[in-house]
Amino acid sequence: MSGHSHWATTQRAKGIKDVARGKLFSKMSRAITIAVKEGGGPLIEANYKLRIAVETARAANMPKDNIDRAIHKGTGEGASLFEVLYEGFGPGGVGMLISATTDNKNRSAQEIKFALDRAGGTMAGPNAVAFNFATKGFLFVKKTDPVDDQMLTLIDAGAEDIVEAEDGIEIYVDPTQLFAMKEAITAKNIEVLEAKLIKKPVTTVELSEKDSERLSALLDTLNELDDVDEVYVNAQ
Fold it and tell me: What values do phi and psi take at 235, rounded to 5?
């Protein structure tokens, strides 16, 4: 078990609270479309990546018609979309992975570079940052009392790591075990609020108060960009 996970909570808070629902649905639609295109077709049961994208959209109450249109688009019109992972350094030298879905890689790169430059950061080359992040299955569940007993239940169910946050409990598992873990948790009557694949930092850096404020502002700017889907940082 570890302490409060600020970097993960920041990303969660950027969801419905700070981004207009329409923009959020637009980003989720692109994720579904690219999952169909690159993940193995439009059948959810045969496309692991699509299943994650669809379940994420459902958890955000995205209408079924929107989901169906995004899946259909992936079989034809969505061919011009690309999934790109940009690497960079933010305030205080914090490592950043910026996941985007775009129809114009140059535009996305320029927008992200501009945002980083304004915050005192820089773009980075391939694997300059990515080596310090591991792909993990991430689940966020509702807390129940007593919390210690709930955590032991989650560990018994197969959790690799658990973090108690203010508004729930974060669970990290092997990415191949994401849905098995979700089913095991649900069977124990624990409410799963979110389930997806994320990039978790292997090591973290501690930022000064000033750099933390600058990073928070940078995250706001990046999450407002239409092409940006997720931002991962290794700030402590």
Answer: -75, 140
- What would you report as the CA-atom Rg of the chain, rounded to the nearest whole angstrom? 18
Residues 153 and 58 in one domain: no
* pLDDT tens sequence across 128-163: 999 999 999 999 999 988 999 999 999 999 999 999
What does the DSSP assignment read for 165-209? ETTEEEEEE-GGGHHHHHHHHHHTTPPEEEEEEEEEESS-B---H
Token pair belonging to 97: 């992975």
pTM for the model stands at: 0.79
91: CATH = 3.30.70.980
120 and 136 fall within a common domain: no
Q: Which two tokens stand for residue 201?
A: 């930092």
Provide the edge-to-edge strand list for the sheet that holds 95-102. 122-124, 82-89, 95-102, 228-233
